[in-house]
Amino acid sequence: MNFFASLKEALTEGVIGQIAAQKHEKPEKIQKIFDALGVSLVGGLIKRVTTESGMKLVFNQAKKIEFEPEHIGNILKNEVEFDKLKAVGEKDLNTVLPGLKSAISSMVAKYAGTQNSLVSSLCGVAMPIVMSVLKRKINEKKLDAESLAAYLGDQREGMLTILPDLNDKLIETMGIQYLLQNFAVPRTEESGIVSRAAGTEKGSASQPFVVGVDMQQQADYQPYLKWIGIGALVVGAIAAGVYFWNQRQMAADISDDETDSTMVEARTIQEPPVVKDSLAKDTITITPTTPAATAAPLTADPMAAYLENTAAPIGKVFKFEKVDYEDNTAQLKADANAPVAVLADLLKKYPNAQIKLVGYANDAKAPLTNKVLSVKRVFAIKDALIKSGISYIRIDAEGRGSGVTPTGTNQKPLREIYVRFVKK
Q1: Nearest to 172, CA basis, from 294, 262, 64
Q2: Please, are residues 402 and 413 in contact by the beta-carbon 8 Å criterion?
Q3: Measuring CA to CA, how many Å separate 129 from each of 8, 51, 76, 100, 281?
């Protein structure tokens, strides 16, 4: 039984009815609120366990909870006990998912068509139920912190099938776009396990092997290795600082016509005017309000010419031609392998170049949404580039759904990928 099925068992119709009576609301609306709170909180937990500290925090908080899901009915009858339960839930929510309560409440309230205050008060009820079900899974499956993280990672697909019409807002609000395609269990010092994909078997720590050095020599070298490790961390921290400073400076140079926030939907699509591209010396179409704002057809020559031209400004966007997928999947068609390989070779030739992949989808079928499908598709390309030897740090990716906003007019759903060079 997956996590959401177990959660459904805890929130029976009787429990929903009791809460509805207590809040003077219809049971259907309360059920809708708890369904949305469930996927939101689980989405937050999945994101939380992608770091070692977060993984351990979620595990420890779940182990500490004393509440049992089947007791919720009796607790609802006792006002004092019910207030205690909500207090525990509020504390866990602020500890495990700090700063997210307001965003979750607002999103769920809009989805359920109810007051924010009602959803906010029910967050304190939903959180201990979620954590108690998590504790039960820990005990049943004998999970440690790492295997708990892997278990939560396995719930991603289930999370997206519960409320398909909420997925777009859920992905944006919880900031879990990248997790839909890639999820890795953090490495812990205790186990010496390298990050692995969710659902894989747990490995075992092994003794480091040093050629020409016996165990006693390794022990003698231990203090030196410690200082070498500290030195490496310091160098890494300095390098990271330089990198993020460069990123910040780079962002300041990028034109204001693009908003990278995942909270902003794709821009209104208009019929593009025709302008001249000084780099390719060909006529190209430009859509000022889409990621194709400076787009040119993708061939090896335009991108190569762009990167070779040191005077060309940062931020050039190329439409990724001949890159398509099997319908309603993130599986690249066979013909797409060639242009992806061309891009990988180009990035190898220009090791300082960094890109952002922006994708749209228009062929998703329920329960999948175009937003989720577009996310999976750009990460499929990112994965292919990484497997070709390109560092993941050099590749950003964002899926923007169909490109059609709710209030837009004369819009056509897109099924395209764009490559933006954010650094040369």
Answers
A1: 262
A2: yes
A3: 10, 23, 13, 18, 62
